[in-house]
């Protein structure tokens, strides 16, 4: 027998348990009751929307008197509730649409409501009513609203830099909380004429809170560029243009009280900007200045200072620091003529950040001494302009002496007094060309000539033998190309085999299998009946197949396959059914081929 008392007790326990869960879900968050305005400032011919929103259900709602406004609509009530990961989310709102009755500054006073036995009040807010506007907000189109709430801005770190001083441009897309952006694509990217430029990659688009013209906005950084001006004077930076898809809220609401949105596409531009580039001062400019701008260190080093003749050493000229490291030439050392110098190997370790280029560049020279002695490498100087101080600075390296311990002595002068202005004479030992073979011992051989040989005449006559074959293949190609109907049939047959093969590969995947099977059947009919796809209806297909004297059984099977392809979109089909339909399609096509 059924124990109704036990069932009743169990039901009571479950009711209490669920009620406690609901109470726990509600108690997890504090009670909030607030007033939200659609805008803080409006024209006399516009309307204002006021929402009183709470996160708990309450009683005895008391609205303010709305002094200075007339209630056009309201109160309308909406409720939303949801459970996410065991946490309940609840929202209830009372909405009013107001029309101002006069110009001036007004205060919408507090509203009150009783929640859980306690009275809660909203904060009062100020509203300014101005003269009538040309186009009221309630008459504005989606494009008008998008124009007011979407802005692309180019923020430039410095508008009056020195020549070759780094500046940064950051492109930000500002979006008002009142609209939503669903997609964007660039229309026109700046070319940055008269600038050396490098993009700083934006790894991820992340929205941040900010302000635009004193109003709260959300913005994303779309593009970052570092520029080095290569010309003084006023230089123009072309604008960046984007096409943005915007969702704009409307006055309509759906069944659940949620606001509905209208979608529009807008083109926004960062606007053309002008940079006033200052020329580098000519006063006190060093004679060896070669265009370096920034803050640098300079060093000349060698891998060794003592070695033997015919051995090698490396001398490195290096500039490190911050500035236009890729845009100037390194100074070249002046070496004694007794030191053989090879072309330098350039090394660059520069990274570009929002602050500009940082790192180092260097030239490494391989030096091989020829004679024994001591050879000084004169001090080398490097000059640059520091835009922070507005002054030039010259750095000078120390003198380096190369001591060649063992090797031949120079015949022309004392090796200790060598300078780079005198070339060393080359001392001949008399056996420099012993590697040349003066008696090659050449022998004569009998020569055979290709001209007038049998191979010569064979190659000469072979093109004549190919002419008949070329004529035959050309006629055959022309006849195939002229058969337009036959070519169409071959192409459709090929497509039918292709789609039937694709259907076999999709066995087990219902939607893909039946899409491929339906395409194969249609393309087969197109090949055999010579009709276009737009004519494919089941009645038309049945009529044409009967006219072609296809038996009723085959026609019915073919139509049944097409019906299965359509039904598969809405009904579950097993793998066994798919295999059966595939086998049936192969069988029907084979039978129809024989009958046609």
From TrEMBL:
It comes from Maribacter aquivivus. Keywords: Membrane, Transmembrane, Transmembrane helix. This is Oxygen tolerance. Pfam families: BatD. The lineage of its organism: Bacteria, Pseudomonadati, Bacteroidota, Flavobacteriia, Flavobacteriales. The keyword Membrane applies. The chain crosses the membrane at residues 456-473.
């Amino acid at each position: 027998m059924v124990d109704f008392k036990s069932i009743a007790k169990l039901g009571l326990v479950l009711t209490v348990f669920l009620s406690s869960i609901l109470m726990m879900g509600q108690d997890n968050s504090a009670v909030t009751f607030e007033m939200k305005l659609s805008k803080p400032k409006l024209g006399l011919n516009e309307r204002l929307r006021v929402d009183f929103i709470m996160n708990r259900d309450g009683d005895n709602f008391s609205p303010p008197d709305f002094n200075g406004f007339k209630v056009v609509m309201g109160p309308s009530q909406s409720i939303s509730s949801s459970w996410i990961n065991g946490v309940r989310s609840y929202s209830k709102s009372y909405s009013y649409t107001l029309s101002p009755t006069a110009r001036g500054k007004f205060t919408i006073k507090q509203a009150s409501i009783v929640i859980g036995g306690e009275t809660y009040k909203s904060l009062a807010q100020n509203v300014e009513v101005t003269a009538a506007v040309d186009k009221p907000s309630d008459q504005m189109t989606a494009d008008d609203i998008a124009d007011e709430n979407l802005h692309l801005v180019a923020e430039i770190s410095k508008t009056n830099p020195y020549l070759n001083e780094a500046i940064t441009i950051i492109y930000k897309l500002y979006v008002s909380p009142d609209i939503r952006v669903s997609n964007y694509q660039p229309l026109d990217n700046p070319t940055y004429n008269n600038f050396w430029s490098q993009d700083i990659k934006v790894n991820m688009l992340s929205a941040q809170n900010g302000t635009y013209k004193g109003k709260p906005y959300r913005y994303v950084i779309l593009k970052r560029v570092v520029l080095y001006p290569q010309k003084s004077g006023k230089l123009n930076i072309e604008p960046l243009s984007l096409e943005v898809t915007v969702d704009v809220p409307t006055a309509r609401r759906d069944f659940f009280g949620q606001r509905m949105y209208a979608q529009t596409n807008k083109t926004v531009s960062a606007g053309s900007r002008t940079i006033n580039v200052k020329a580098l001062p000519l006063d006190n400019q060093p004679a060896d200045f070669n265009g370096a701008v920034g803050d640098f260190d300079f060093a000349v080093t060698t891998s060794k200072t003592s070695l033997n003749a015919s051995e090698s050493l490396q001398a490195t000229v290096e500039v490190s620091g911050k500035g236009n490291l890729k845009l100037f030439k390194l100074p070249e050392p002046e070496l004694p003529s007794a030191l053989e110098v090879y072309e330098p190997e350039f090394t660059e370790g520069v990274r570009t950040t929002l602050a500009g280029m940082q790192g180092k560049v260097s030239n490494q020279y391989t030096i091989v001494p020829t004679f024994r002695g001591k050879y000084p490498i004169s001090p080398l100087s490097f000059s640059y302009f520091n835009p922070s101080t507005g002054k030039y600075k010259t750095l000078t390296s120390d003198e380096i002496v190369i001591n060649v311990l063992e090797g031949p002595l120079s015949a022309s002068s004392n090796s200790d007094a060598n300078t780079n202005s005198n070339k060393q004479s080359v001392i001949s030992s008399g056996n420099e060309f012993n590697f040349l073979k003066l008696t090659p011992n050449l022998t004569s051989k009998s020569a055979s000539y290709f001209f007038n040989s049998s191979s010569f005449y064979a190659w000469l006559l072979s093109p004549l033998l190919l002419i008949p074959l070329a004529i035959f293949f050309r006629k055959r190609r022309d006849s195939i190309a002229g058969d337009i109907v036959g070519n169409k049939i071959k192409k459709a047959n090929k497509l039918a085999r292709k789609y039937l093969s694709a259907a076999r590969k999709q066995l087990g995947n219902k939607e893909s299998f039946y899409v491929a099977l339906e395409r194969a059947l249609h393309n087969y009919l197109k090949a055999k009946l010579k009709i276009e796809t737009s004519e494919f209806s089941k009645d038309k297909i049945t009529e044409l197949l009967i006219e072609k004297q296809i038996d009723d059984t085959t026609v019915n099977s073919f139509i049944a396959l097409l019906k299965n392809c359509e039904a598969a979109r809405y009904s579950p089909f097993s793998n066994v059914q798919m295999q059966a339909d595939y086998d049936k399609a192969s069988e029907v096509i084979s039978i129809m081929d024989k009958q046609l």
